[in-house]
Each structure stands twice: as C-alpha cells, then as structure tokens.
Amino acid sequence: VKKAFEEILRVLKPGGHFYHCDLVKPKNQVVGFLYYNYLRIMIPVTSIIFFRTTGFLGMKESVIQLRDYFIEAIHIFYTSDELSEILEELGFKEIEAKHMLGGTVAIHKSKK
Fold this sequence. Notes:
Elements: H1 2-11, E1 17-23, H2 29-51, H3 61-76, H4 80-90, E2 93-100, E3 105-111
Helix pairs in contact: 2-3
C-alpha cells in the first residue's frame, strides 16, 4: 500500500486531491467479531447464489480459500487511523477520513 501511495503522491499535481475507499480493519473488537463472522457466512452464500458452486454444504474448496483469503487480508490490513498516519508520513496534507458501516469501510480524502 505504501508504494502505491508513494507513486500516487509522485504523479499527483500540486494541490491535487486523492480519494481512497477501502475495507479496513475495524477498531472496535465487537464490530470486528461480527464483521468477520458475517463474511465467513456471506462470501460462500454469495458464491453459491452467483456462481452456482457445489460441494460440501454447497462450497467448493476454492470458495473456502477465497473466503479465508478475503477475511485474512482485511484482518492484517490497516485501521482507518493507521491509514491516515501512513498518508501523513508520506507527505499528503489535509487528510480527512470518513467511516462507514461500523468502521469496516473508510474513505480518505487528502491533498498533495
């Protein structure tokens, strides 16, 4: 993420705006517990609905791997506050973060 943000900052015009929307690691442990369990259920259900997968309980091994990868990726990703700190360390200015869906989604706005 840092390398991508460094490149974005490099090519952004002076005074240019950068917006970033991503799933983030929830700060609140209760929200995190509920969110990760929701994903454990809904990723396979969504896969069954849209891709008509079959197998044990309607889940192919690839669906289980996708679910586990997605959950782990969010779990090791940054919180919204950590992402704001990274943007500041890299040289972005006027950083604002808006949290949605209980802190599971964040939109960051910043300037060069």
